[in-house]
Write the structure tokens for this entry.
Amino acid sequence: MSTLRPKINLFILGLFLLLTIAGCAPNDKNFDFWGIDRPRFERYTLSEDKVRIDGPKEQYWEIIYEQKKDSVFTGLVRHVNTDYDPYFPILTHDILVTTGDFADPDRVNTRVSDHHFYWVATDENEPQGTINLLHIVTIDPVVYDQLMNIHPDDMVSVTGREILEIRHITSKGVWDRTWRDAGCNTLLVTEVKIEDVSAP
């Protein structure tokens, strides 16, 4: 029996997997590799007052909010991606929500990179509307599943409490890292709605 056939089969299988991953990831950045990158929500507990999240290995995160009431962001999604930060695994997504001219790719070009967004108008007129990059915090698997259903060009409404700062506290009680919102909107999400644009 030829030893070449198993090698060819293995090569074809590897090529198929490579093309599948390469084809999925760039076209849909809201992708957790079939659940492999899904956070292990059972490891996290949100305090009743929502100012602390306890995690594995006796570490925890303190949350400082911008205000006490929830905010709602409604508009067209121009960008969405999953996140992974080993020190802030509770940050699961970045979602760019837009209205008005910012929702129109013919009027405004947008880009998201490393938790920052950029926009450029395609003509000399000042764009009208809103543009918000949401840094999503959740430890709720139901909310996470809803977030995983968001794709570019969806009309969404995302509700949550705006966060000013998240502090990572080690198992020794040392505050060693900070996530601080700087011009975007970090949000502890409580509700996600995706509008059915096909509905009359």
Q: What stands out?
A: The helical segments are 4-27, 141-148. The first helix runs from residue 4 to 27. Residues 135 and 186 are 4 Å apart (CA to CA). The beta strands are 45-46, 52-54, 60-82, 91-98, 108-113, 116-121, 131-137, 155-169, 175-180, 185-194.
